[in-house]
Amino acid sequence: MNFLLEIGAEEIPDHMIEPALEYLKTECSKLLRVEARVDATPRRLVVRAENVIEREADSEELVTGPSVSAPAPAVAGFAKKLGVNAEQLGRTTGAKGEYYSFVRKVPGRLMRDIIAGSLAELILKTPFPKTMYWAGKGSERFIRPIRWIVALLGGDVVPFTIAHVSASNVSSGHRTLGQKWFPVTYEDYEQKLLDNFVILSADDRYKRIRECPVHYVCDRPLLRTLTNITEYPTPIVGRFDEEFLALPKEVLSTVMRYHQKYLSVESEDGKLLPEFVAVMNLDADRDGLIRRGNERVLRARFNDARFFWNADQKKPLAQRVEDLAHVTFQAKLGSYLDKTRRMQALVNELGGDAHSLRAAELSKTDLTTELVKEFTELQGVVGGLYARAQGEPEEVARAIYEHYKPVSMEDSIPATHEGRIVALADKLDTLRGCFQIGLIPSGSKDPFALRRAAQGVVKIIVESGMTIDLKGLLGRDAKLEEFFLDRIRTYFRDIRGFKYDEVNAVLSSGWSNLADVEKRLQAIQIVRPTPDFEPVAASFKRISNILKQAQFESDAKVNPALLEEGPENDLFTTYLVTSQRVARADYVTALETIAALRPFVDLFFDKVLVNAKDEQVRANRLALLSSMRREFSTIADFSEIITISQETKE
Amino acid sequence: MLSFQDVIFRLKHYWAERGCVIQEPFDIEVGAGTGAPETFLRVLGPKPYSVAYVQPSRRPADGRYGENPNRLYKHSQLQVILKPAPDDVIDLYLGSLAAIGIDLAKHDIKLEEDNWEAPTLGAWGVGWQVMLDGLEITQFTYFQQVGGIDLDVVPAEITYGLERLTAFLQVRDSVYDIEWKPGTTYGDVRLADELQYSVYNFELAHVETLWKLFDLHEGEAQRLLGMYAKYPDKHRFPVLPAYDHVLKCSHLFNTLDARGAISVTERVGIIARVRKLAVGIAAAWVDQQCGEEAA
C-alpha cells in the first residue's frame, strides 16, 4: 500500500524545515517499516512511502500459567482464561520448576490502526527549537499552527486528530495562486499541487531559482533559504542606481543579502554590478510591478546606508575611543573601553607592533557608528573601511577589518600578522574575562560563543605558525586550560584529521606551543607505520604500568654500578646514546631513534626482573625505566598510543 | 489612488465587517499598539475580544528631524487583535490587503519568520513579518505570553505600518510626500512635530525633570498595586489608571534613552523596573477578571 502524509501548517521558518524532515524520515520509516521519502515547502511537511504492508504478520506468544503441581481448579482457570481446554495446555520448564503453558496465536494488527494510533504523537514530537500553542492554553504545540492534515494509506484516510484538525484527503494550494481546498490521492498528489502552484520538490524549486538570465553570486545558504520560503519561486532581476556603487561592496551586499534576501550580481572580475536578483513566491511579474517595488525598497535601504556612512565620517574613529565607555561589553567585565585597554595590553604581551596596537585601540569604535547600529553583522568590516577612508595606515585598517575572523571552523584566519594579533587579543580577552566571572559554557548554552572564540584562537595560532606560549596567556585558570585542551583536541582531530590516540599522546607531552604540537603530530604520523614504533609504544605503556604499580615517583639518577651485565647494562648504554641523539635531532629522527630502542627494551623485559629481591637493585631498575620515560616523552606520551594488540583485546 | 486616510477608512471598515470593535487611539504615549490597554490587558484571560484601532506609536530614538524619508518619531500603526485567532486568520489578513486595492496575483507576498518580544511588557509571541514586494508592511504575531502570564486564549495581533503601506500604494519614496487627503501631504500635516519632537528628545528634554517624572509615575503605580491585595471590592479597583502610570514610565524611559541619559548598566535595571510594574498590573487585571466572572 502507498502512504501519504501532508502536515499543512502556516509558514514554517526556513531553517527549521530540514531538521524536521530528517526527524520525520527516520521516525516514519520506523513506523511504516519501509523507507519513507520526505519533502517540504514552507507550508507543508510531506512523507511518502510505497509498499507498506497491510497487516503485521501473525505472531505467537508463550503464556505460562500455574505450576504443574497446582490444584486442578487453578489449572482449569488458567485454561479457561485462554479459551482452551486444560488438555490443550503444554508444559514449560522455568527457573523454579515446570509450569503449564500455552502458545497463543496473536493476529497481526492492521497497519492502518498502528499508524492512526501513533501519527499524532509522532508529529507533535518533531524537534523544533521554539514551539507555540494556538488552540488555547495546554493544547498541542508545534512550530506554527497546523491547519490541515492529509493522511492516506492505500487510498483510505488514516483517521487521527491534532488540535481539532482531523486528517483527510484534502490539501491546499499556493496562498494566492492556487485553490484553497482540493482532494488528492497518493497518485495525483504532486501533480495536483503543481496545478495549484506548489512545487513540492525542493530540488525543482532550486532549479527554477537557478534559471536566471544574469549571473549572480552563488550564495548557497541564501539560495537554500530562498528555496525554503517559496512554494513557486521565480527569480526577477532588478537594478539600482550606479551612484550607489560609491559605497563599499561589503555594505551593499550586506544590505541586499541580510535585509532583502537578494542575490548580488558581479562581473567576471568580481566587481559588483548595479543589479540584483530577487526571488518571488509567484509565477510571473507580468506588469513589472514587483520588480519596481523591490527596486524602491532597495533604493530606500541604500539611501539609509549612504546617510549613515556620511554621518559617521563627521566623527572619525580615533575620536570615538572614549565613547566606548558608554557601551557595555558585559556588566561585570565593564565597557568596551575597558575591553579595548585590556586588548591593548594583550597585544603588547603577544609582541604586537605599533600598527597592531593602534588597530586594537580602534577595533571596537565602529560599535558607536550609525552604520554598525543598523547593520550589526558588519562590525569590524565597517571599522576597517572607515579606518582606511580616514587615512589610518593600511595595516591598521586591514587588522580592524578582519579581527573577528575566523567566524566559523570553515572560515579563514586573518590574512595579516596585525590582524591575527588583534584577533587573538580580542578572543583571549573575552575568554579570560568570561571564565573569571564564571560564564563558562555548559551543554548547548554558550551565549558569548566562547567555544567559537577558543577554536578561533587555536586555528589562528596553528595556521599562522606563531610561536606563542598559550598557557601563559590563559591567566593560570585551570578551567580555561581544560576548556582549551578540549578545543585543541577537537581541532587536530576533527578539522585536521589526526588520529585521536596520537593527539592524546602529543598533548600529554605539553600543548602550550601549538605550532610545536602540530610538528610533533606530523612526526608521529610519519613514524607510526614503521615496524618498531608500535611495539616500543607498547613497551612504554608497560613501563608506565610498572612505575604506577610500584608507585615510583622519584627522579633518582641511575647508578651504573648497580647494573647487571647483559641486557640491563645494554639498555642503559643505548639509552644514554639515544638520549644524546634525540636531544639534537628533529622530531622525525628523534622518534625513529627512540623506536630503534625496541630490541633492547624487549630483551630487557625478557631477561631482567624489575622486581628484584634486592631493594637497591630494584630501585635502580625503576630509576632506569623512569628516566627513559621522562626523557623520551617530550614529543609524545607513547603510553597513550593504542597499539594493535590492545585494539584486538578491546 | 487611495489617500492615507482612505487606507485607514477601508481597513477599519474591513475589520468592522468582520466583527471587530473599532476603537480610537489610546491617549497616552505608547511605543507600539501592543502597549495600549486594548491589547495589553484585553488579551489576558479567557474572554474573546476583537478590536481594531489606529495607534500613534512614539519612539523618540527613531526621530530624524523630519530629514529621513522613512524614519519617524511618531508613526501610525493599525492594530488588529483577533482573540481567539480564527483558523483562517491569514486569509482574512490577505483579504484586507485586497480591500485596499492590492491585487494579490500581481504582488509577491511572503511571511518571513520574525518572533516578537517586548521585555518591558513581559510579553512575547511567534509570527512573521509580512513582506510585500520586498517591503515589510505588517507584523503578524500569535501572542504566547503577556505580562509574564501564559495566555488562556491565543490571539493574533496584526500590526500594519500605515505610512509604509500608503507609500507603497502611492508609489512614493518619502513618507512626507504621501497624500494624506487629495491636495494635502503627510509632510503638510506632520513635518513640524517630527522636527520639534526630535529637537526636544535629542537636545532639550530636561533630564532631571524626566527622571523626577519617572519616579513619580513609578511611585504612583507601585502605591496602587500595593493596595490591590487588601482592597475589599476588587471590581472597583483602579487597575486601568495604575496602568496609565506604567505607560508613562515606559515613554519617559524611551525619551531618556533617546536623550542619551541612560547608561547601559542602568538600562537593564530600568527595563526590569518597568517590567515589574507591567507584570503586577497584568496579574491584578487577570485576578479582577476572574472575580467578575465568578460574580
Tell me what the structure shows.
- The complex is a heterodimer of chains A (650) and B (295).
- Chain A has 650 residues and is of the alpha+beta class.
- Chain A folds into 5 domains: 3-54 and 111-195; 60-106, no CATH class; 202-312, no CATH class; 317-520, Hypothetical protein af1432 (Orthogonal Bundle); 530-649, Isoleucyl-tRNA Synthetase, Domain 1.
- Chain A is 47% helix and 14% strand.
- Chain A is built from 25 helices and 19 strands.
- In chain A, the strands form 6 sheets. In chain A, strands 1, 2, 3, 9, 10, 11 and 12 form a 7-stranded mixed beta sheet that branches. A 3-stranded antiparallel beta sheet of chain A has the order 4-6-5, covered by helices on one side. A 3-stranded antiparallel beta sheet of chain A has the order 15-17-16, sandwiched between helices.
- In chain A, strand 16 and strand 17 form a beta hairpin.
- In chain A, helix 9 crosses helix 14 and helix 20 crosses helix 24.
- The model of chain A has no long low-confidence stretch (mean pLDDT 92).
- With 295 residues, chain B is of the alpha+beta class.
- In chain B, 44% of the residues lie in helices and 22% in strands.
- Chain B contains 8 helices and 11 strands.
- Chain B has helices spanning 4-17, 37-40, 89-99, 162-170, 186-204, 207-228, 239-258, 264-294, and strands spanning 21-23, 49-58, 74-83, 109-113, 116-118, 123-132, 135-146, 149-150, 156-161, 179-181, 184-185.
- In chain B, the strands form 2 sheets. In chain B, strands 1, 2, 3, 4, 5, 6, 7, 8 and 9 form a 9-stranded mixed beta sheet that branches. Chain B has a two-stranded antiparallel sheet with strand order 10-11.
- The mean pLDDT of chain B is 94.
- Chain A binds chain B through residues 10-11, 13-14, 42, 130, 132-137, 144-145, 147, 175-177, 180, 229-230, 260, 262, 278, 280-282, 285-287, 289-290, 292-294, 296-300, 303-304, 307, 326-328, 331, 335, and chain B through 68-70, 84-85, 87, 90-91, 94, 104-113, 115, 125-126, 128, 132-135, 142, 144, 150-154, 168, 171, 173, 263-265, 268.
